[in-house]
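Dear H.,

Thanks for agreeing to be a second pair of eyes. The structure we're designing against is below in token form, covering all 235 positions.
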């Protein structure tokens, strides 16, 4: 029994040691090495936050320095009309190696891509709360008369198109509702920035929000649906 406890503790000790080394690498080593690959961690502030510690702990929060400048400019534009609103960041990129995708996002492989949350309202007022713990997977789907890109892609055999539904980590804040006004204001603030290359949002939301801009593109059926988040990328 004592021998079993000893070996049990050794195993537990190994986990603690591994986790400790992992944390040191994540918080101290990786941020210092990433600039060699032209990347740095997302810079958060009162107006720019990460949806969850998960992204930091898994090193999915790295971008090129220009993306941090872009985010700061988007936030300052967005906050002119909504001073309390926050840009909530989701998946960005890994810290190293171009062309190494951040699954399930095939294109998040060069430090130029970032996903951010849609905006929601609580009792008619804009809120920074989101409907899932991860920030992904609770969709603002097409209404009955809206164009349904999701059905088209799934019918074509692109089974992965709504794969985020398995990645919510749980639904929360069920009393919040999608904010058309807030999301449109956020997309407009993004589109005002010259360094933005492309923005992806699901076609039915693009139409519902009256968004017309050449930088808003359809991401293709090989990607994942974009009615739970907005994708933006640098030129
Ligand atoms: Zn994306």
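And this is the sequence the design step returned. I haven't edited it by hand at all.
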């Amino acid at each position: 029994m004592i021998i079993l406890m000893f070996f049990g503790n050794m195993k537990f000790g190994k986990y603690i040691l591994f986790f400790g080394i992992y944390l040191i690498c994540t918080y101290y080593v990786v941020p210092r090495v990433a600039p060699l690959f032209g990347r740095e961690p997302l810079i958060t502030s009162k107006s720019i936050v990460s949806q969850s510690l998960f992204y930091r702990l898994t090193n999915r929060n790295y971008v090129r320095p220009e993306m941090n400048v872009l985010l700061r400019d988007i936030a300052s534009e967005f906050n002119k009309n909504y001073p309390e609103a926050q840009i909530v960041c989701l998946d960005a990129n890994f810290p190293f190696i171009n062309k190494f995708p951040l699954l399930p996002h095939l294109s998040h492989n060069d430090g130029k891509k970032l996903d951010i949350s849609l905006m929601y309202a609580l009792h008619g007022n804009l809120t920074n709360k989101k409907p899932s713990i991860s920030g992904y997977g609770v969709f603002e789907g097409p209404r009955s008369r809206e164009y349904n890109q999701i059905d088209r892609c799934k019918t074509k055999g692109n089974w992965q198109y709504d794969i985020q539904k398995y990645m919510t980590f749980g639904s929360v804040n069920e009393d919040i509702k999608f904010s058309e006004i807030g999301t449109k204001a956020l997309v407009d603030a993004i589109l005002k920035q010259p360094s933005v290359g492309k923005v992806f949002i699901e076609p039915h939301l693009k139409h519902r929000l009256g968004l017309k801009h050449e930088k808003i593109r359809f991401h293709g059926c090989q990607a994942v649906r974009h009615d739970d988040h907005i994708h933006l990328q640098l030129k």
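Two observations from my side: Residues 198 and 215 are 5 Å apart (CA to CA). Residues 105, 108, 113, 115, 231 surround zinc ion (CB under 6 Å).

Warmly,
E.
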